Amino acid sequence: MRISDRTTKILFTILATSIVFILLLCAWSLKYDFFGNSLYVEKAFVCLELGDNREPLSVSTNIPYGARQVCLWFRYASAQGESYLTISWYLNNELVLSEQMKLIDKEGIKAFYLLKENGIPLSAGSYKVLISTPTKTLSEIPFIIN
Questions:
Q1: Neighbouring-strand partners of residue 131
Q2: Over the chain, what HEC string results?
Q3: CA–CA distance from 96 to each of 26, 61, 81, 126, 128 (Å)?
Q4: DSSP reduced 3-state for 122
């Protein structure tokens, strides 16, 4: 039994179309976490410090020059298995600090600080801090020090 050239072309077209469809579906599922990674950030703030109960104080997106530290405070939920977050701080669109952490609890509160080790004030400029997973950005907070 011999397969005709026409049948071969049809089978090849079906196979190629199926492969393209599967690749697009995989890319879509990674972008939208279709397969269950529903980690999200409920609230996120930039502040100057934390209170005794770990709640943010002096929340602002306009930080006065002279500040020696800026705090990122956020509440997350629906972490599953081994969820990792990356906290990335940018000054004038240049990365100045990036930290990765593993989330142990399904939900919780985290805080990270941007500061200089020598204790001098943070540089004036346009900042942003991103909270992200390996596949997407969960929160982006722009702020200014001036």
A1: 87, 139
A2: CCCCHHHHHHHHHHHHHHHHHHHHHHHHHHHHCCCCCCCEEEEEEEEEEECCCCCEEEECCEECCCCCEEEEEEEEECCCCCEEEEEEEEECCEEEEEEEEEECCCCEEEEEEEECCCCCCCCCEEEEEEEECCCCEEEEEEEEEC
A3: 32, 18, 29, 12, 10
A4: coil
* Predicted TM-score (pTM) of this structure: 0.72
Band the pLDDT of 26: cuts 50, 70, 90. low
CB-side exposure of 133: number of CA atoms within 13 Å? 20
- pLDDT tens digit string along 58-101? 899 999 999 999 999 999 998 887 789 999 999 999 999 999 99
Structure tokens at 27: 């890319």
Tokens of 45: 């703030």
